[in-house]
Amino acid sequence: MAALTIAGTGVSLLGEYQQAKGEQAQANYQAQIADRNAKLADNQQQDAIQRGDLAAEAQARRAAQIRGQQIAAMSANGQQVGFGSAADIVRDTETGANRDTGNIVQNAFRESQGYAINAANYRASAVGDRAAADQAMQAGYLKMGSTILGSAVKVGSIYANNGKIKN
Fold first, then answer.
1. How far apart are CA 33 and CA 105, in angstroms?
2. Is residue 151 a contact partner of residue 5, using CB atoms and an 8 Å limit?
3. What letter would DSSP give residue 78?
4. Domain count along the chain
5. What are 110-167's pLDDT values in tens digits?
6. Is residue 166 a part of any domain in this protein?
7. Gap between the Cα atoms of 53 and 102, Å rounded
């Protein structure tokens, strides 16, 4: 009977160890996924900034083209561009273009910050997942220790009841 208890303990220990290793592997896998997602979010952040820069440059070129067309049209009509309402029109165009360019840059920055926050969250998740992996093994070892102690009590009880251990 004691031999069966000891054999059962061995099987239980193996099962508990395998379960802990499985939980550890799962948590480590989740950490790897979180790390990859963080890198992806970093790339998305850089992409948002680059797209914003390109869009701002394109907006500035369009604004310069419009300003040039306005100046050419007013000059062709004999207006002096540097004075009066002609100057006001050019100045308003430049002000609107600068505001639009600023909005493009600001929106790209906001988008990039969203990706930066996602990356930080993924990194924090990876840290938590690695801690869970460590905890899984520690919990497994504690469970195995408890199984050993419980089995030792059972084996001791078996020997005591069979009269092999005398007080």
1. 31
2. yes
3. T
4. 1
5. 999 999 999 999 999 999 999 999 999 998 888 888 888 888 888 778 777 876 555 4
6. no
7. 10
